[in-house]
Design goal:
Layout lengths: L2 H6 L4 E5 L5 H10 L3 E5 L3 H8 L10 H9 L3 E4 L10 E4 L14 H13 L4 E5 L7 H11 L9 E5 L18 E5 L2 H14 L3 E3 L3 H32 L3 H8 L23 H11 L5 H29 L7 E5 L14 H11 L3 E5 L33 E4 L8 H5 L5 E3 L3 H4 L7 E3 L1
Parallel strand pairs: 1-2, 1-4, 2-3, 4-5, 5-6, 7-8, 9-10, 9-11, 11-12, 12-13
Antiparallel strand pairs: 6-7
């Protein structure tokens, strides 16, 4: 049986490496569509959760996970020798930046090396991790070729960018259109055939470099436009104009405008990171990326601006500044209604408050305890404050960083201190604005 026949007949076993926000939803979706799927991860906690049929990702319901596990279509392991049993291998590992804001492909490279040690002829390998254009053929391909198997004959490679949006209930892994490409015509056919079995719509593009550039472009578009409204906010604040009112008014135009909203900084794994993959690669071609770099500077500066304003507000209210003041930080997840902490600007706010000598408590119904994070290890296991501990007179100020729907915003207004709102959460709910400052 050929690999194409195994794909279209759904007899090919799928291996998904990396069972996080991208990998687990993909693994469950493929299993629900009829494929036998093995999930691979180095984290034993994830393996234990899946074995116990407990979902740790909001996008995967416990019922869906239990369904595919009970049917024998999904299992999870840390035994990477089982990659030899897979005819389709999907890589969903992190692609962070290093301390110099340069691409860190170590997870992709280590994963590819592991695959090369176990891969067999007649296997398709697809990279989903966001990266710079050229990675699939310049990095993944040569490592897999070190197995002694021929690319395009024995093994095939492709790229299909993940498009997960944590907390977005309108779209899921199956309903989001899937951009796909292969290294060569046959590889492209195989990638397209596989995803056509898993998702509702497949969009095939000419090359893996094109597919890689698609994802980078999507995230640069968001990063630049968020930077634009963050800069407009500073300008309009100086003029005494509410930027939120401006955006609401502009959004009534039915063409030629798309609303973006300011905030305390960028969060999530994609938008704060992915644009710099292109700026790094562009240097190889001696092409400047001024828009991207300027957007990065503006967005990176926003937490500092928020703390500067907070300091002035607390000083004007109590005459004490931030040193020794207790601040309630509301919301530490990177976006509303999720527990995802990746690159959350709230953690930078917490760090800046600590450096200013403030005492910080945080309130977040989605994050009862701060998980281990690469950049903010000092906050690991810090506990959220209980809602019943929010006594009037305790705090010098409330700082809203993430506007979860589950927060009792009315209760925040009874604490008797200034409320600094970076998300327009109070005004959107029609609550009194007497002591609220939009920042």
């Amino acid at each position: 049986m050929t690999l194409m026949q195994a794909i279209t007949g759904q007899t090919a076993r799928v291996g998904v490496i990396g069972l996080g926000y991208v990998g687990l939803p993909l693994a469950v979706t493929a299993a629900r569509q009829g494929f036998a799927v093995t999930g691979f991860d180095v984290d034993p906690a994830k393996i234990a959760h899946i074995t116990a049929r407990h979902s740790y990702i909001d996008a995967v319901s416990p019922a869906a996970l239990a369904e595919v596990c009970a049917a024998g279509r999904l299992d999870a392991t840390s035994d990477f020798t089982r990659l030899a049993d897979c005819q389709i291998i999907i890589i969903c590992v992190p692609t962070p930046l290093n301390s110099q804001r340069e691409p860190d492909l170590s997870y992709v490279e280590q994963t590819a090396t592991t695959i090369a040690a176990h891969i067999r002829p007649g296997t398709l390998v697809v990279l989903e991790s966001t990266t710079w254009p050229g990675t699939t053929e310049e990095v993944l391909g040569p490592i897999l070729a070190s197995s002694g198997l021929a690319l395009g004959a024995d093994i095939f490679i492709g790229f299909s960018p993940e498009r997960e949006d944590p907390g977005n209930t309108a779209f899921n892994t199956r309903s989001i259109p899937k951009v796909v490409a292969g290294s060569g015509a046959l590889a492209g056919d195989l990638v397209a055939a596989f995803y056509a079995q898993v998702v509702d719509k497949v969009v095939r593009v000419p090359t893996t470099q094109t597919a890689e550039a698609v994802k980078i472009t999507e995230n640069i578009f968001r990063a630049v436009n968020i930077a634009l409204v963050n800069e407009l906010k500073l300008v309009f604040d100086a003029m005494g104009i509410d930027v939120w009112d401006v955006i609401d008014g502009a959004a009534t135009k039915p063409f030629g405008y798309m609303p973006f909203y300011p905030g305390p900084g960028l969060g999530g794994h994609c938008i704060p990171i992915d644009p710099f993959y292109l700026t790094w690669k562009a240097r190889e071609f001696e092409v400047p990326t001024r828009f991207i770099e300027l957007a990065g500077e503006i967005n990176t500066r926003m937490p500092h601006h928020v703390i500067d304003r907070l300091r002035a507000i607390v000083d004007a209210d109590s005459g004490r500044g931030l040193n020794g003041a207790e601040i309630l930080l509301v919301g530490v997840a990177y976006k509303k209604n999720v527990h995802d902490m990746r690159e959350s600007p709230a953690m930078k706010l917490m760090q800046l408050l600590d450096q200013a000598g403030a005492r910080v408590s945080y309130l977040d119904p989605h994050v009862p305890q701060i998980p281990p994070m690469r950049e903010y290890r000092q906050y690991t296991a810090r506990q959220a404050i209980a809602p019943n501990a929010l006594e009037p007179g305790r705090f010098a100020a409330v700082l809203i960083a993430t506007d979860h729907d589950a927060i009792d915003y009315g209760a925040l207004l009874t604490l008797g201190c200034p409320v600094v709102d970076t998300r327009n959460a109070i005004a959107r709910r029609g609550l009194p604005m007497d002591r609220v400052v939009k920042v």
